[in-house]
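debug: dumping io for the single-chain case to check the tokenizer round-trip. Nothing else runs in this session.
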Amino acid sequence: MRKLKCFQVGGLTVQDVLDEFNERAEEFRVTEQDLVTVSALRPTLGAKIATPSGTAAPKVEVVIVYWASE
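debug: decoded output
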């Protein structure tokens, strides 16, 4: 049975988050047809993110909802 799953993460740009998700799509077992919605909003998570020069507060939060087989 398929279930809806959510990938929610903060980042500096939406493109950075989408690039990471696309690189890890095989790990999540997600294809483009499995995607339901992608939303960008102001950061709500309090955690800082790692950057090449240290850490930084996220500027955006991206929520990706997709169908998963597991």
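debug: round-trip ok. Residues 14-23 form the longest helix (10 residues).
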